[in-house]
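Exercise 7. Predict the structure of Oxidoreductase from Stereocaulon virgatum.
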Amino acid sequence: MPTVLIVGATRGLGASLAKQYVSQGARVFATGRSKNVPESTKDITYIPHIDVAKEDAGERLAKHMGSVGLDTVIVTAGYFGTESFDEPSWEKEVKMYTTSAIGPVFIVRALVKAGLLKEGSKVILVSSESGSITLRHESEGGGNYGHHASKAAENMVGKLLSLDLKEKGVAVGIVHPGFMRTEMTKGVGFDKFWDDGGAVTPDEAAESLIKFIDTFDMENTGEYWAPRGPRDIGTAQAVLGKDLSTPLQLPW
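Solution. The predicted structure, encoded as tokens:
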């Protein structure tokens, strides 16, 4: 029975991942940012008060896990605050960078130092195609500095972690799970793009991601992928050309 830790699992993609891993017979640990997490079941252990934007989140999580070895760790926690050139937000940007690019370092480090990740373990950082500098295109314009740049920083964090953990045999992947119909995208007004942008449900994105993780190993450590391919990446063909593969390795 594989053991899976999902950091950020009370809604959206994280909740769908937890549900689907359980259906496949995995033992699942799922974190929430606040004290208000679902009640644990025989299949899922919910861990409250793990806010990746807080410095002590990694140590708190490792302490809670005790000596439980982990086969897969998926960091899905995220925050999206919209901005424009005329109305940037210092507070939102700090929160986005902290959540996406600083917190994961401390989470993964704490788990490694506690001996919970072993040779053969996998760490997956859920990023976004918006973190690809290459895929940014004039047709999409600027703005949303904190979101896009924090995801680019998260991609770099994933690459650096892959180098630090290579000798330990821990594979690190960075993924764009797909454009999803979630409360997060709706909350920033992106629901108006759901239909034209090919947005999928969290359940659909989770299914594709789990299949991808199943085959992901040290051969691919440090790489950046879109498990669902180019279908929801609006600039993919303009930048990368036609006849693109699924899954699709993304450019930085």
